[in-house]
Amino acid sequence: MAATDKPHFDASFSMTDRDKKVLQQTDEEFTPCTWDELKSAIAVGDIASLPRKPSTLKKYIAWTDKTKKEFGSVTRFVCSEKLGWLRFQDAGVAAGSKFASAGDEAFVDQRDFRILRNDWPYGLEEEIVHLIVWSKVLLDSNPDGSLTSEGEAVVRRFVEDVFRSRVRGDDRVVWFKNQVQWQSVGALEHVHVLLRGADEGLVEELTGQSRSDVEAEKFSM
Q1: Interior/surface letters 164-190, b for 16+ CB within 10 angstroms, e for the rest
Q2: Rounded to whole angstroms, how far apart are CA atoms 51 and 32?
Q3: Strands 128-135 and 113-117, how do they pair?
Q4: Spatial contact of 168 and 77, defined as CB atoms under 8 Å apart
Q5: Do 130 and 207 meet the contact criterion of CB atoms below 8 Å apart?
Q6: Radius of gyration (Cα) for the chain, nearest Å?
Q7: What is the pLDDT of residues 137-195, one digit of tens each?
Q8: Under a CB-based contact definition with an 8 Å cutoff, are residues 7 and 58 in contact?
Q9: Phi and psi, residue 191, nearest 5°
Q10: Global confidence as pTM
């Protein structure tokens, strides 16, 4: 598909102005986001400014359309094919749904959360790994999806214990939780964690996945 071709996508796909500009580029013309640019975007809450590589974005649009037709929603796909927590019978799940969990607090019982690679990561420099922590237990959040001080404290403790304690060096871990308007799987509680220069063995240990297991690598148009 040429860089100027417009891939098919349904009206529900959230296209940002940045996405539209990226689709006019080739992968060779695309400049990956640096660690400092990533941190700046997170600091000001401008996650929408983070781009995906042109070829990845085109595949993501096509994959989203295909997945919704096959599973009814991306949420149902993630639940059944990635997490194995529940197969939803309806076409969608309301935001704020709660799973039957082993505990009442997020990130305490390992049966209540999973760490996976992001299937459709942003266009970041090669040394940056994008992970998602999925939780059956809801975090304490504001109506817009941002965390309350209590919810933020829970995530900070978890990130410190699981990631910062195991990734060597300073300034190697950042995290964020998307506001509702930018959540592609809003019905499932999740937090994004990004690691810089992490050992691949550690990433595989945390996720049980290799780089080739993500949908961006497996899906072909």
Answers
A1: eeebeeeebbbbbbbbeeebebbbbbb
A2: 8
A3: antiparallel
A4: no
A5: no
A6: 17
A7: 889 988 887 899 999 999 999 999 999 999 988 999 999 998 654 455 556 889 999 99
A8: yes
A9: -130, 140
A10: 0.87
